[in-house]
Structure formats: C-alpha cells, structure tokens
Design brief:
By secondary structure, the chain is mainly beta. It has 2 domains: 51 residues; 233 residues. The radius of gyration is 52 Å and the shape is elongated. The chain has a 22-stranded mixed β-sheet that branches. The longest helix has 40 residues.
C-alpha cells in the first residue's frame, strides 16, 4: 500500500530513496511494498506566481524542518533487486569443426605442388643441359674453319658485286658416289640436285663493307671423290655467307654444318648429316638415312625411302620435330620430349606414355628393326607415314 513521507506527509512511490518534496531519506520503506503509481498533482512542488513550477527550489516545503546532516548521506550504490541488471552471459566459443586440421592439409598440398613444379623445372633444365652437352660431343663447334694444308681460295673470278653483296659461282667435278662436306659460320645453306656429275656452288656474301666482304674467305679442298668447302673463322661478323649448292642426285655421304644457319636439303639419295646451332633444318624427298641435330630450331624431314643400314636420329633442344617416313619402314622407335606432346600415326600401334616431366613413346613400327630416335627438350614430336 501507499506510504507518506514522515517529514512532510507527501505520498511516496515505490523505488524512491528521498522524498521529492522535502528530500527526507526514505530508507525505511521497502520499494517492493509500494505499488507503482502515477504521481498525483499534490505531490508536485508548489507553483510560482505565474502558475509555473518553482525553479531552483531545493529546500523543504514551508513549515517543514530540513533534515539534519546526520540523516543525509550518499545515495546507496545498489539498486532494488527488481532493477538489478543480470550479469552478462559467459561467451562460449563454438566447438571446433576441424578447420585447423584442414588448414594444415591444404598447406601441405600447396607445398607439395610447389615442390613438384620446381622439380619439373629442374628436370627440364637438366635435360636441356644434357642435350647441349651431347650436341657438343657429337657435333663439336665449328673448329675446322681454319686454313689447313691443301686448302685453296674459292676466289673472286666472275664475281658479281653490288653495293651490299658479292656473288661468286664455281663448278667442281664430283662423282655420283662421292662425299661432300660444307661448313659455314654465319649464313643459310640450301642443297638441291641435278643430272650433272659436278657440284655447282654459288656463294653470296652480304652486309658489311666491300673490304669486309673481300676479307671473308671461302676455301675448298678435295677432288671428284671427296670435296669440302668451308668459311674461314676470323671473318667479319657483319658479313653473312649464303651457300646455294647443286649436287649429283646420288652421293655416298653428305655433311652440312652451320653455326647460325637455316639448312635445307632436297631431292637427294645419300646418307645425310645435318647440324646447326641456331637455325631450323628441313629435309625433303630424301632417300637414305639422316642424323639431324640443332640447338635452337625445328626439324622437318620427309623421306621417300630408307635402307636398312641407314641411321635415323633427330634431336633438338628448343624446337619441334616433324617426320614423315615411308609406309613400309620397320624400325624400333624411341621418342622423348620434356616439354611438349608426341603424336604418332595410328597405324604404328604405339601408345604415348605421359611422364611426370614430358612424354615418351617406345615400340616397334612394323616388325621393328633399325633404331629411330627422336628427342626434343622444349618442343613437340609428330611422326606420320
């Protein structure tokens, strides 16, 4: 039930600590015993002259003795039980769902993939290095490009000279079963055939000054059974020497070597060796075997006929290898690439195996027989009939 202030008689409400009229403490009244009510007009402070509530009135009502200092004190720092806030609930972290374990698994997978990629790169680099070493072993650098006893100057007889080039043509007797060798340092080489028992060699020196072209020497050595031509080392690097050669349609051996040379050989029956450091090699309508190797360049070879004893080896470091072989060829294939694909004629019946690094194909073409070796480090291989 409602209570009144013991000092001024004003009605008190639940939860009050001091009388709103006289300020007397109300500690002796339990807040929960008093009902909550709307404050009646009688509990409002006296109105002023203008009907407004007196402003600044802080003392007790008239006729009421102010409470002594002993009766006043600080407002208690606790609240009634019904108004005390509940303590915050303790936060419980969600149960672990194994995310940490999956994080480690993903990390290990990423590390494994990275290690695999690095291993593949190292394998390709090692293969390229080995291929380069094999190249230098099988085809040493053009070290024979120095003058030797018996070498004769190609000469300038009949030379056609322009502002930027000098062209000279010379004929040499050459038998059908002869050997022919050519070594060039800087310039392309093309070989064709004709129905003559002689070699026609056209040399075109380009670039540099007229004096530099004159100092770029070409020599030859041999006779109708064995003929060698070569560009001498020490010539001006600004001068390129292009060889255009016509040979009898059948020779015992044909060897073409170039340092910075694109090599093209067509329509000849011979056992061919072709090598270039920087340049592609192309063989067309060949009868016989071939050993072909280059470092930076592709190999494209098409054969009309291959004897049982003729070698078949093709290798490059940076480039593709494309072969067209006779339909009746019987050979044992070994094809490998470290970075590329291998495509074989379906009639071979040989499957391509994918390695951790690159691809490989091994097997018999027909009943097998002579070795057919095809390798590239950075490139693809295609073999068809």
């Amino acid at each position: 039930m409602a209570r009144n202030c013991s000092g001024c008689g004003a009605e008190l409400f639940g939860g009050q600590r001091f009388c709103r009229v006289c300020g007397r403490p109300t500690a002796d009244l339990e807040g929960h015993d008093s009902p909550t009510q709307v404050m009646p007009p009688s509990a409002v402070a006296p109105e002023g002259e203008y009907g407004e509530r007196a402003r600044g009135m802080t003392g007790p009502a008239p006729g009421v003795t102010a409470p002594t200092a002993a009766r006043t004190g600080p407002v208690p720092q606790y609240a009634p039980a019904e108004y005390r806030p509940s303590p915050p609930a303790y936060y419980q972290p969600p149960p672990s769902n194994g995310g940490g374990r999956w994080g480690w698994i993903i990390a290990f997978i990423a590390i494994g993939l990275f290690a695999g990629v690095m291993f593949a790169v190292l394998e390709v680099s090692r293969a390229a290095r080995n291929a380069g070493n094999n190249f230098r072993k099988n085809f040493p650098p053009v070290s024979d490009t120095v003058r030797k006893p018996g070498d004769q100057d190609f000469g300038q007889t009949g030379a056609i000279t322009s502002l930027n080039s000098t062209t000279v043509t010379r004929d040499f007797p050459l038998n059908d079963d002869a050997t022919f060798s050519l070594i060039n340092i800087n310039g392309d080489i093309s070989v064709e055939t004709w129905d003559q028992k002689q070699a026609e060699v056209t040399i075109t020196k380009s670039g540099g000054s007229a004096d530099a072209r004159d100092q770029t020497k070409i020599v030859f050595n041999g006779d109708e059974d064995a003929l060698t031509l070569k560009s001498l080392r020490g010539s001006s690097s600004s001068v390129t020497v292009k060889y255009e050669v016509k040979l009898p349609r059948s020779l015992d051996k044909l060897s073409i070597q170039g340092t910075n040379s694109v090599i093209k050989i067509a329509n000849i029956e011979s056992n061919i060796t072709a090598q270039s450091t920087n340049g592609s090699i192309e063989l067309r309508n060949i009868k016989g075997g071939a050993t072909v190797q280059t470092v930076n360049g592709s190999i494209d070879a098409a054969f009309d006929d291959i004897d049982d004893d003729d070698p078949l080896k093709f290798s490059t470091v940076n480039g593709n290898v494309k072969l067209q072989i006779p339909s009746d060829l019987e050979a044992t294939l070994n094809a490998q690439t470290n970075s590329g694909t291998i495509t074989l004629d379906d009639s071979f019946g040989i499957s391509v195996e994918k390695k951790f690094v690159g691809q490989e194909a091994k097997g018999n073409i027909g009943d097998g027989g002579k070795a057919l070796t095809v390798k590239t480090t950075n490139g693809s291989i295609s073999i068809t009939k």
